[in-house]
Amino acid sequence: MIMKWIYYLSIVCVVVQLSSQDEDLGELAKCFPLNKSTLLSPKELLPGLTQSRLQFSLEFMKNVFKKSKPGSNVFFSPHSVYQALLLTLFISDGETEKNIKTALRIPHEIDKLEVLRMYTLEAGFEKMRALNASANYEFNNVNKFFYENDLPVRECMKMVFKEELESLNFKYDPFLSKQIINEWVSNQTKYQINDLLSDSDVHEDTKLILVNAMYFKGLWQSKFLPENTKKEIFHSSPSKKTFVQMMKQKGNFKYLISEKLGIHAVQLPYKGEDISMFILLPPFVEQNSIEFLLRKLTPEMISEIVEPNYMVERPVELGVPKFTVEHKLDGLVPILEAMGVGDLFKNSSNLSALTGGNEVSFNDVVHKAKVSIDEQGTVAAASTAMFTFRSSRPLEPISFICNHPFLYFLYDNVSQTILFMGVYNSPA
Length: 428
Description:
By secondary structure, the protein is α+β, with helices and mostly antiparallel strands. It has helices at about 1-20, 20-30, 40-65, 80-90, 95-105, 110-130, 155-160, 175-190, 290-295, 300-305, 330-340; strands at about 75, 135-150, 165-170, 210-220, 230-235, 240-260, 265-270, 275-280, 310-320, 325-330, 360-375, 375-390, 400, 405-410, 415-425. Helix 7 links the parallel strand 2 (about 135-150) and strand 3 (about 165-170).
């Protein structure tokens, strides 16, 4: 509850700050011209943008799962990719801007300037959240524009993105520039994501690299006792089984059975209750149970599952594998193109809002994510970079044992955002 009050307080503070900068609105309009007579309020914008993030996260997951190797573990941060694309929206114009909005599932009636206002508000909230990190959990979510120091970035962009913009000398020292970016990502993710960019990703023709870095460390509200962790069989498929360290406990957890999805689900809150892990466990009747689940899963169904009063608290005998997964997503360009980014990764893209000209265009995306789950809690981190080379309660506890493939996601109850998402297929 305290964190929600901080969130609303940060909205009020930033709105006041924006409205007090009337003398800068003329400069701001050069980069973000308003295409309608009045701006929607944050309260009016929040439902549409929240739904857009949820829809993007689910569709991105479905596309990533289709491209992944059968039986492999999948883990990524849809919010990190969303944030990186949001940065491209702010520097785009024309058809490219429209296409990115489509890919982000942002409603047509929401103007880019309104998206920027909400971005500014949420960035202020995340900063306060990071400063108020406690022993219960840490959360950090930051964005950065690394640009070639001779790139003529417009003053209106420098005014809006004071903290996000940093110039580097790609032209004369691409190796050092790569090291600086990788070190920044490593520091922001508490050394969970290292070497995000390789030597081939950065060279003397690089003009711009957009990076999002995200880190979360949370303690379970109800911890698993290490002495209860035992080696048990995990059924990766009907014909393949292996051993996994299974953490176990009995307690009261929010739980549901969904006949629509053919699954049962449980919510595992972290201390502070702002962020929770949700596990969706299909019955293990055939090898493609996760694929069938993703086909049926809709944003509306996820909205129901995460609704605070939707699940019922009841006694559960819980078993969750202890695991670490590190995943680098390759081939993201075709996935994003399938989601509607249009010409973003082509020479014809229009990214002129950054400089006033068309000196830059993107050609690739890199995303790395890592999650570690043990008896104490969860550590998760991710980073995304987009870079350019051109310019009812039963008497007995319910058994919820995750001994076969399951879908899981970390959900921020305050910002109503899926932070991380994954499929656990195998202990291998």
